[in-house]
Each structure stands twice: as structure tokens, then as C-alpha cells.
Amino acid sequence: MRILTKHFTIGMAGHIDHGKTSLTKALTGVDTDRLKEEKERQISIEPGYAPLELADGSVVSVVDVPGHERFIRQMIAGVSGIDLVILVIAADEGVMPQTKEHLEILKFLQVKKGMVAFTKIDKVDEDFLELAKEEILDELSGTIFEGVPIVFVDSLKKSGIQEMKQILQKELESIQEKHATGNFRLPIDQVFSLKGQGTVVRGTIIEGKINNGDLLEVMPGGQAAKVRQLQVHNKKVEQAVAGQRVAVNLSGLSKDSIKRGDVLARENTYDTTDTIDVSLHMVENLQYPIKQRSRIKVHIGTAEVLGKIVFFDRNEYDGHKDEDVLCQLRLDEPITCSRGDKVILRRPTPAETIGGGWIIQPSGSVYKFGQSTIDTLRRIKQGTPEERVKEAFLKSDLLSLENLKREAGLESNVLVQLEEQGLIVNVTGNLYAHEPMIMEKERQLAGHIQEYHVMHPIRIGIPKAELFSELSNSTSIDLIEFVLGKMETAQIVLRNENLVYLEGFLPSYPKQWQRRMEQVAEELAGDKLTPMPFSLYCEKAALPEKEALDLKHFLLKQNKAFQLDDSHLIASREFHAAVDLLKSRTDDEVELGEIKDLLQLSRKYLIPFVELMDALGITEREGTTRRWI
């Protein structure tokens, strides 16, 4: 036999007085009716909890939930964290009204595993027992209890108890455990204080783990608390994990500041909300239709709050057909919940369970009535976190975390995980972008710049302002700036002042103008230190104005020429040759007249020439003298 290392909670459900508490005691040795009123009235009012030791030595928690109609709230709170349900049916009575309601609730909570225990078998003869079994199996057809193991027990004589334990052991081996690696969350179902110990809360951990000394908060109030001590089934432990029922002794909080329905969690890991989007199924036989904005009781985990139901594709639901109803619950007070949490809906008056389902988005928005909202909710329901994030960024390439959380129906802790995984990236301030979109924008930018290089091979690069102008219709400026900076860091693109170009790109003459541009450059160099106005060279070569401007910029940016004055360029090769000549014929200083004589320049070219030397840092002016630097 494989030893169970997982942690599970088993629930007892069924009609009042069908023997749930007696069966729990027979299995565990613990009487879960601990309240004085429970003893006096011989009914369970609050969920009772007991440890069950199986044959392999592993221990699971057993929850004995109330069966009376007036204690449905406590029943829901008790079964909200269970992994397997034992449906208890008295052999002498069969399926009763509360049995059916419990079945509906368990269906809505999507409890996957179950077994049936026929109790009080001593009260019927064997022939009647077989008949009762057949009738009950018909009743259970189509429920989660169809085809499950069945055991006959007498809790007082303990007949069938060992067989039941063996079946439980086998069934639990096939159940997937809760997420012990997630963020810790404990819906609180009991709060009390002990003299000398302070405030204690109890519940079943549904996610993550808790350690002695942990700093936590009680949601939705946000009160800070520190774990002083942990107990699992009255034994002190250093750590408790998902699936275990635990008592947590908290310091820093009074008993009166906590109530059942609150959630113990790590700081900033779960959301508080009063508007939730849900996927619901309703019971088949409603007493009355559910009208638009009807008042409802909402049960989530161990919490019960009042609110109203808001439909977006109908004005009422009459329950005549089984369908997936996508709608919104607007609550009178905030709760702490997460996507995937199960929901039970009850009508306040007349009291009845009307439906249940699960939360598809814990922080809902205000939507318009119509099919488009239903389509949006269906996409939110069906998509993975990654798919929902992708869809949210299709509406806007930059989103704040708050908007992303709302648009994608995600909790804060999931967003943190997605950021750690690199799926969402902080771009600027509180604005985030989708990593696949960033990569796509990189490709777009690179492609756009490459296209510019092909169209304008003589230009050093595209002006940044032009690049932003052409892309800003489809992309936020902040995102373009971020992506461009990222590409620069990776040296995919480079900048020359305000010009942006791809790494490895070298400007060259366009093929259709190459010969004419070469002619201009050759004639400019041929005129050495006394060039014509640059426009005349271009006119002589029949170079159009646009290409003439491109050539001018090319020669200047590539340091093939210098701007002598507003109209003239000078070939850089000829300029440097003249400077070398001057340096070789003069000492540390040179007079303006000396430069004029050595270079044979008229004043028209002399003054621009020496000013160019000053501007380039070759010389420094001192009156009419230039000192070599």
C-alpha cells in the first residue's frame, strides 16, 4: 500500500439525523458536536472537525457539516475546502430534501470525488436494504455520486467501518493535491480566543503554506498579524500546507476584529472586491424566476454576503433549461477571492439554493447590456492567464497594472508571476507592455528602418522624429521609445545625433544617381580650396534638388566635406592637405597674412577657411594670429 504524503479534507454531507456525526465518531473516535446547544438538541449547528488516521499511518481531516436547512450557510462553509465527500443516507429514510440540496451544492462546488455511506442499517431488514439501495441509486443517477463506492455501516456497532477506511485510502490516492507552491490562503471558518494565547483562527488551507513567525494580513480589512503558533489536529507544527486543516494563533489582533468569511493571506497577494464576474448554472426546479438585479446571498469559501445578480443577455432566468449563465454579482460588502473560486447562490426569501458556479474574474467592470459583453466574458472564462493578457493588450499596447488586472481578469499575485516570467514588462511609470508585442515592435522598427535604408541608401539614417511620426498611429510613443532604447542597448540600432540606423549599415550612392553624384564629388575635390557654390555643381551634373540635398548631407555626415559657409562646401581631403601644409611651414603661431600667402587664397575664401579651422579645434584665434592647438 502506498503511504499518503498528500493532505486532504473529507466532508460528511446529508440530511439531518442521518447519522453523519455518529459516523464521524465511529471513524475518528471524536465527537464533533462540541457546543452545548448541539448536545442538548442532538443536531450539528457548526461544522465539526476531526482527524482520521488511515491504515498507512497518514492523517486526513474529516468535516461533519450541519444537515438542517436552517444551517445551510454553515454547511457550505464546511464543505468549501473538501477533496472528497461522503454522502450519508439513512437506510430507513433514503434521499430527503436536505440530501438533494446538499447534492446541488456539491455539484456547484465541483467536488469530483465521493462515496455513499448507508447508515442505520440495523433499522431495516436485508431485503428492504437492497430495495432501498436501488431506489437511492436511481436518485443519484447523473450526480457526482453515480458509480461511486458504496458502503453499509452501523456506526454504533462499527460494522463496515474498516471497509470504509480502506475505500477512503484507495480513493484519496487518485486525488490531486492542492497547490502548496502558490500564495498562502486560508478562508477562516472559526474564530475564538484562549486565555494566555490570544486570538486563534481555524480553517482549511486552500493554497500555499504557512510557517511559524510568518507576517500575514486578514482580508478584506487588511489588518496585519503575526503567526505565533500553528496546530494541526491539536499538535504543534512548524509548517502547515494546502489541504491541511490548521489552527493559527495570531498576535497583534483581537478576536472581535476577525470574523468567519475573512481570509488569512500574505500581504498584496489577493484582491478585495465587491464586483465579480461569474459563470453560473442554476438549479432545475426554481420556485420563482430569478429577475434582473434580484437580491441574493452569495457564498464564497467561508464567506456569506448579500448582493444582487446582474444579467447582460436577459432580464430573468426561469430555470427551464440547463445553460452556462455569464453574469455579474455586485456585493453589498467587499470579499477576498480569486479566479476559479466556487460560488453558491441562495435566495434570501423564500430561502432556497438557486445556483452556483465559479469566479471568472474577481474584479469586474461596468459593462453594457448586450452580446458583446457576453462574448467578452466568455473569452475571459475560457482563456488561460497568458491568453487573457494577450487579448487585453490587443485593445491597448500599454496598460497600467490596475487596468490589466481588470481587462484580463487576473489577480495581483498572478500579475507578479507573469512579470517575473517576463511576459509583461514595465515600460515607464506604471505602464506595462506585452513581451511578444515588444518583440513584434522590434521587428517592425527594424523592418521600417531597413526599408528606409533601401529607399534612401545615401542617407545616414531615418530622423527619429520621422520614425516616431510614422509609427505613432499604431503604437504608443512611450512604447516606441522603450523598444528603440532596448534595441540600442543590444546594438541592433545606432544613433548619429537625431538619426537612427541599423548596425552594419553603410550609406552609399543610389544606383540611379551614382554617376552624377560622383561627378559632383570629383569636381568639388578638383576645385580644392576655392569651390563654387555647391548648388552649381549639382546643377551642372543635372542632379535634382532632393538628391542634391541628400548628397550634401551625405558628404557632411561622412566627413567627406566640410561646410565652408552657407553656400560652399570644401572637400575634406583638400582641407586637411592645406592644414598639413600650413603646419609644416609655420611655427606655433601663424598670421592671417601668412596663411593667405601660403595658400594663395583671396579674402572670400581665407576668412571662412580659418574660421573652419577654429571651429574644428585645429587653431585658436588670438587677434589676427592663429595658434595651433
TrEMBL record:
Entry-linked Gene3D superfamilies: 1.10.10.2770, P-loop containing nucleotide triphosphate hydrolases, Translation factors, Winged helix-like DNA-binding domain superfamily/Winged helix DNA-binding domain
Domain of life: Bacteria
Entry keyword set: Cytoplasm, Elongation factor, GTP-binding, Nucleotide-binding, Protein biosynthesis
The keyword Cytoplasm is assigned to this record: yes
Membrane in keyword set: no
Domain Tr-type G: start-end pairs: 5-177
Entry function: Translation factor necessary for the incorporation of selenocysteine into proteins. It probably replaces EF-Tu for the insertion of selenocysteine directed by the UGA codon. SelB binds GTP and GDP.
Record's protein name: Selenocysteine-specific elongation factor
The organism of origin for this protein: Sutcliffiella tianshenii
